[in-house]
Design brief:
single chain; about 450 residues; mainly beta; 2 domains; four-stranded antiparallel β-sheet; 1 helix; 38 strands; about 0% helix; globular
Length: about 450
Amino acid sequence: MEARRKPADRLSEVNLPAPSKEKPAMFALGRGERDWLLTRRSFVGATAAAFGAISSSRVVEAQTLGCRERAHREQVSSLALTPDGRTLVSGDRIGESTPWDYTGSVKLWKLPEGAHYATRLEPNPVRAVAVSPNGRLFASGGYDEVRLYNLPDGTLYKTLKGEGSFVRALAVTPDGKLLASGGGGTINLWSLPDGELIGSFSDWSHGVDALAISPYGDLLASSAGREIKLWSLPDGRLLNVCGTGGYTNSLVINADGGLLISGGYGQPIELRYLPDGGFALSFPDERDFSSTTLAISPDGGLLVSGHGGSIRLWAMPWGDEIKRFQAFEYSSVTGMGITSDGKILVTGSGDGRIKLWSLPECEPFSSCLVDVASNPEDKQGAQYEQGGILHTVPCGSPIPQGATCTCNCVRGNLCSCVGYTPAIGSGGGGTITLPCGSPIPPGYICTCNCISRPCTIT
């Protein structure tokens, strides 16, 4: 395997202390003449520049907020974001009494407005989704196949069938040339964008639950049960096997490729050095050792973890808990993602809900994303057109300037567009009435309301 390139700031070269009951000192990295050195600056202070003032001695409790509308009929199994953070891909599984009755779907959303614009039905439950680094393709996995779709329209590009079955995890190399899929007892490697199978290697008989690829694309981490395995890419040579404290089902690698973070059922969040996989530390948490999903900020300074219906924020690399809040009242967090600018956290739940939060405040960024087809018959949604794509939003949602409000509800009565704007000059904003389907004038914001009256811009 070729020698790994030296990253600009490599946390794997920091001699992190073993966990102890005493609160560890905070460190930051400084550049020495010959190598990276530790300085006794406050790491929390350095992190605060990016994430606001952080108190390591007090955890901020956020208020529980309701979320009624649904994005999917049932469990949101996975989430993935395009590199520009403007498109969200979500997967689900839809079923009846037994797992064999399940089908699935993938849905596409525009952020930050949270508009739903496409649904693609699949014959199998969708267990995982992943987006290519150039934002032109996304992959979905379930049962014995992987499907490739074009972006932004979501048209099916190719279906991939390799060795193994029950695909549960997907990961794409940073250069976008390789896609890894894991499921039954096999990890398959596919070339992109052609989708050709270039290699397979055996993992566990009971299946792979999570995959993560290093920022340099030369190392793959996989987990199943109480083990994590490290592989070289693209040859698939096994480098090391690491035991964990519980069932591991979530893996992320930090931005410089020096740390692997794992979480799962019955175990604390654990950090390991890369590329060797040596244990670094675990986050102290006496209340709950289950972290069902993980996400890390683009700069690696903030880790977000899901614990049942709650979410916790941690300062990296020491694991000081910054904030916790209840994301979903009646269900668990089943998927998370952070936009490339680090400003929006996307969360999915086991009962089909998707909610956006601002970072680092964790204030609700919007109401729940909604697809009216996933909600009861009395739910309505307004529509608008932009860039040749028809978007659906909850009634009363603002739509972008320049978009065309179609004034049509997916269900129920006709819609109207009621716009508003700050006073313009001395004459104020005034009221303008336009036919349905008219573009919104510059400076006005349209709100689509599902009521039976003409389309009015106020």
